[in-house]
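Hey, quick one: can you model this chain's 3D structure?
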Amino acid sequence: MAAHSTRIAEAAPRYTPPDTLAEPALRAFFKLAEHWKLRIADQRKLLGDPPESTFYKWKRQQGGALGRDTLERISYLLGIWKSLQILFPDPAQADAWLHKPNAAPLFGGHSALERMLSGNVADLYVVRQYLDAQRG
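Sure thing. Here's the predicted structure for all 136 residues.
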């Protein structure tokens, strides 16, 4: 029985504590925000509206404690970035897509960024799901 439980433990994915993800997550987010040419207000909204002092501390140190919600938001944003890079071979076109009006019913003529800036984490999920579906 002990050998069986050892094999299960070895096969199970390793748990990564959220505090070890904060630094790489914030580094990736701020790099992504630069590529997408996001305003500070938009960056804060996408991160879940942290207090201004917290946001600037994250931006300056690119580290600190992040809640589960913020990590989830960054994860969706990175997935959106990755999908765009796959769908559009030209990085500039991929980065610009976010800002362009979109006729898909999901966006109602607005840009994906406008949908994402509603403040709801669910909207980040919906945009990511849409792009993943476009990838096939």
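One thing worth noting: The mean pLDDT is 87.
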